Amino acid sequence: MNFKTYLESTGKKAVELAKAAEKVTKETGASIVVAPQFVDIARIAKAVEIPVFAQHVDPIKPGSYTGHVLAEAIKEAGAVGTLINHSERQLKLSEIEAIISLCRDKDLVSCVCANNPSVSASVAAMRPDIVSFEPPELIGTGVAVSKAQPEVVTNTVKLVRRVNADITILCGAGISQSEDVATSLKLGTSGVLVASGIVKAKDPYIILRAFADATKL
Amino acid sequence: MNFKTYLESTGKKAVELAKAAEKVTKETGASIVVAPQFVDIARIAKAVEIPVFAQHVDPIKPGSYTGHVLAEAIKEAGAVGTLINHSERQLKLSEIEAIISLCRDKDLVSCVCANNPSVSASVAAMRPDIVSFEPPELIGTGVAVSKAQPEVVTNTVKLVRRVNADITILCGAGISQSEDVATSLKLGTSGVLVASGIVKAKDPYIILRAFADATKL
Amino acid sequence: MNFKTYLESTGKKAVELAKAAEKVTKETGASIVVAPQFVDIARIAKAVEIPVFAQHVDPIKPGSYTGHVLAEAIKEAGAVGTLINHSERQLKLSEIEAIISLCRDKDLVSCVCANNPSVSASVAAMRPDIVSFEPPELIGTGVAVSKAQPEVVTNTVKLVRRVNADITILCGAGISQSEDVATSLKLGTSGVLVASGIVKAKDPYIILRAFADATKL
Amino acid sequence: MNFKTYLESTGKKAVELAKAAEKVTKETGASIVVAPQFVDIARIAKAVEIPVFAQHVDPIKPGSYTGHVLAEAIKEAGAVGTLINHSERQLKLSEIEAIISLCRDKDLVSCVCANNPSVSASVAAMRPDIVSFEPPELIGTGVAVSKAQPEVVTNTVKLVRRVNADITILCGAGISQSEDVATSLKLGTSGVLVASGIVKAKDPYIILRAFADATKL
Fold first, then answer.
1. Is the pLDDT of residue D58 over 90?
2. How many beta-carbon pairs below 8 A join chains C and D?
3. CB–CB of D42 and C42 under 8 A?
4. Who among B96, B101, B127 is closest to C93 (CB)?
5. N or C: which end of chain C has fewer CB within 10 A?
């Protein structure tokens, strides 16, 4: 679950949201990862036992960089992985590869986002732990990628598998119904990337629980 | 004091460094601001009473942005201001102006960095709270701007004052001796921006104390 | 007149458009500058006698840069100036200043774009030859800045003059009627920046001629 | 041959250099492509019969873009292909994919640069016509990649072939001796990307001729 920079997922509310996710994990056994803003990583990592990811990390080593995000810093704050190249935080190709390599060194899980099947295959060739396919035009629309473009998801899985047999594949964009989660899994992915569908919900717990239950279908 | 992304100023060590700065402030009355990495802002703001700045903030409002830094988030974490456009995190002109405007709205202190006299004047025309002149070629060298380019500092102060009578002027780059601090003030600035000179010191407290004392000369 | 990257202003059609502008200049004495794409600069500069600008130039000196645009190269191709920091090609503050300085050295006219009054003042403080105020939200709309935001134009002129008495001030965005040109001049500017209003017109010559005539009112 | 932005390969001198390359092609049958600056494409394409590439093209369609480089424009100027993502003009991953796709549509040859083996494989997965492996730390040094890192070239060829059987593989960086060309071919590449080694030579024709002869060994 990507917290992005919504007010509903900033500061204290971010902690509450993470606790709701933890509750669902305990109840259902579903694997839920939360990706809050940088400043909220430390207190969320203290407050919950489910995995915390950063939303981004910079391809740098410790040194003279201002306003950058150090892998060592998010790790000390309690993050166990990071999103990379989200469509709202796109990176140069060489930077993506450098961050994947950095994550490998620092034992952080790397989850790289891709906007189409060809880019997904390209990402898979760099061997991160996870590739997440998200067509940007569907992000935040409530129209799920699994419903609007099922054949594109299938094609992505096929192209990705051709270059990388082991990588975990997620999809996202517009996931707002529990059936979207179930469909995504049937299309060959191992999970979904969600944000506004849960963060902006009246009761995030209820939606999260429904999503978690849908993974069991 | 800009903590940058040195290991010596990350996580627990960042808290210790901030406490050393707080101690010097209490002993000398000198005004010291610490600018740690995003993930460390919250714990440092809790641990010390001196002002905490972010090293950067993004020109965005709450919403669908991944891996960005929200003004509301750094404020809730305890920051009271932010560096903007550091030479290691340069921004587009329109972004700088948008962040200054955002800081005004959110009651955050805006400190914009500039790499030469002309850029400093340009920054001053946008009316942030503080402009900090730092020639990038001297950053991290230990050769102080106040010693290497005193006439450039003086010229910067003159050009800045021509367009903005009220702005606070700092200078930085290579500040490593207490006499560099004293000289900077004599050249017409109100303070200095420091990083490696203190962060990488064997005993940061001793250097900070000497710098604080130098402001009284 | 900014040719942007419309098909109607690319290649041979770009030459025809420049010739139409030259014709209007000869007929009316109005000062018209054309800013075609990089690849078209040379043939247009050969084909017409009116001034040709680049749409952008990079802050670099001759050397090991790939895919960059060298001031020396646009000059040898026949350009006499360049747009800088157009809202569709925004630059870091230090880059803008470096390009202004480069233009001064190479005897090229520098025309820097700005998206609001505060940014316009900031640009003026760096002393380019021309500042062009264009609110991005009106670009390409046909709703002229001079009609929609006359007080913002006036305020821009005031703020710019406060920091720079000599600079030439243009405005742009949505200029599509000859009365928009006349109004812009009355609001204190010395001319307008136009693009789609002319490039996409059925007969660009007629619109250009009407615009030129409007400058005499 | 990448002309970059050297004065020795700008304007009239760029035309002379292209003619030297054409002469070598006629004498030896070697396939030489020249990649001049944007403003020089048209006159070089008129002056010589060997293929002309752009050094970069933007991932845009005709429209409201200022200071951008349109595929249609470089094509009308006479280019038959383009470099993409050179280490001196790096792009976001989604941009690279969009440009490859654009080149396919416009019948332009796409040559994507990559800085290491993993990035080369990633590029190959997007199926451009050519991938060119160039370790940035060797560019312009005169220390050839084929001599300094032969096993890295071999490894790149292996990783690239695993995801793409058809792609043309080049290598570059530091190529300055004709034996570097011969070695590069023996390591499994189909050619080399060169720049300063020829552009900055006293007599580029002599070096080019030696390089062309080395491809026959």
1. yes
2. 149
3. yes
4. B96
5. C
Alpha-carbon dihedral sign for residues B138, B79, C121, B93: positive
Annotated catalytic residue: which of C134, C137, C151, C179?
C134
Tell which residue, A56, A57, A52, has the closest CA to residue A21: A52
Instruction: Give phi and psi for A71, each to the nearest 5.
Output: -55, -45
Q: Look at B56 and A66 and tell me if their CB atoms are within 8 Å.
A: yes
**Are D93 and A101 a contacting pair at CB < 8 A?**
no
pLDDT at C137 over 80: yes
C86 is catalytic: yes
B93 to chain C, closest Cα gap in Å? 5
How far is B13 from D154, CA to CA, in rounded Å? 44
A156 touches chain D (CB under 8 A): no
Phi and psi angles of residue C195, each rounded to the nearest 5 degrees, phi first: -145, -95
pLDDT at D217 over 80: no
Specify whether A68 is catalytic.
Answer: no
Nearest residue on chain A to B113, alpha-carbon basis: A66
> Which residues from A are below 8 Å from D97, CB to CB?
116, 118-119, 122
Across the range B22-37, mean pLDDT stands at: 97
Helix (H) or strand (E) holding D54: strand D53-54
Query: Which one from B134, B137, B151, B179 is the annotated catalytic residue?
Result: B134
**ipTM score:** 0.95
Please state the rounded mean pLDDT for residues C169-176.
93
**C56–chain B nearest CA distance, Å:** 15
Note the pLDDT of residue A114.
Answer: 97
Q: Where are the alpha helices (DSSP H) in chain A?
A: 12-28, 41-47, 71-76, 93-106, 117-124, 145-148, 150-163, 178-186, 196-199, 204-214
Where b means 16+ CB within 10 Å and e means fewer, C13-47 reads bbbebbbbbbbbbeebebebbbbbbbbbbbbbbeb
Residue A178 has pLDDT above 80, yes or no: yes
Report d(CA C4, CA C14) in Å as an integer. 10
Provide the Cα torsion D178, D179, D182, D184; round to 10°. -100
When pLDDT is averaged across residues C92-96 and rounded to a whole number, the result is: 98
Q: Could B37 and A73 be called an inter-chain contact, meaning their C-beta atoms sit closer than 8 Å?
A: yes
Per-residue pLDDT, B216:
85
Looking at residue C195, its pLDDT comes to 93
List alpha helices for chain D, DSSP H: 12-28, 41-47, 71-76, 93-106, 117-124, 145-148, 150-163, 178-186, 196-199, 204-214
A39 inside 8 A of chain B by CB: yes
CA C139 to chain centre: 13
* B63-69 mean pLDDT: 97
- Compute the average pLDDT of residues C165-180: 93
Which chains does D contact via 3+ CB–CB distances below 8 A?
Answer: A, C
Sheet with D53-54: list strands edge to edge.
D53-54, D81-84, D109-114, D130-133, D168-172, D191-193
A142 confidence band (pLDDT: 50, 70, 90) = confident
- The distance of D93 to chain C (nearest Cα, Å) reads 17
pLDDT for residue C217: 73
DSSP string, B26-72: HHH-----BB--GGGHHHHHHH-SS-BEES---S--SBS-SS---HH
- Spatial contact of D120 and D160, defined as CB atoms under 8 Å apart: yes
Partner residue opposite B56 with nearest CB, options A2, A67, A86: A67
Please tell me the distance from the alpha carbon of residue A195 to that of residue B64, in angstroms, as a whole number.
9
Q: What is residue D112's three-state secondary structure?
A: strand
Q: Does A89 touch chain B (CB under 8 A)?
A: yes
pTM of the model: 0.96
- Interface list for D 97-136 with C (CB within 8 A): none
User: Where does the pLDDT of residue A217 fall: very low under 50, low under 70, confident under 90, or very high at 90 and above?
Assistant: confident
The percent of residues in chain C predicted with pLDDT above 90, rounded, is 94
Average pLDDT on A56-61 reads 98
